[in-house]
Amino acid sequence: MNKFKNKGLWVSMLALIPMILQGFGVDVLPENYNEICSALLGVLVLAGILSNPSQSTGYKDKL
Questions:
Q1: Interior CA angle at 38 toward 7 and 43, to 5°?
Q2: Cα(44)–Cα(22) distance, rounded to whole angstroms?
Q3: Distance (Å, rounded) from C-alpha 27 to C-alpha 15?
Q4: Which residues have C-beta within 8 Å of that of residue 29, sequence separation ≥ 6?
Q5: What are the distances in angstroms from CA 34 to CA 5, 38, 39?
Q6: What share of the chain is helix, strand, coil (3-state, %, to 5)?
Q7: 21: CB partners within 8 A, 6+ apart
């Protein structure tokens, strides 16, 4: 059950939803989706949220 507490799992699952919808022909993403994602990820990297080696949360599971 620890896998369901993993934040990386939920981020991946949320990213999967638009991909599935797009596969069925439902256009849910704006045309400038790539620019929005690049800007958001750039801000998160600058803030140190995506790369924080001091903590083992995110994609590392406790076994």
A1: 65
A2: 26
A3: 14
A4: 18, 22
A5: 28, 6, 9
A6: 55, 0, 45
A7: 28
Q: Taken in order 56, 59, 60, 63, is the CA torsion positive or negative? A: positive
Domain limits, the chain: 2-47
The candidate with the shortest Cα–Cα distance to 37, out of 25, 24, 52, 19, is 19
| Both tokens assigned to 25 | 């022909």
Reading the chain (63 residues) residue by residue, the pLDDT tens digits are 777 777 778 888 888 888 898 889 888 878 888 898 889 888 877 776 655 555 555 555 555
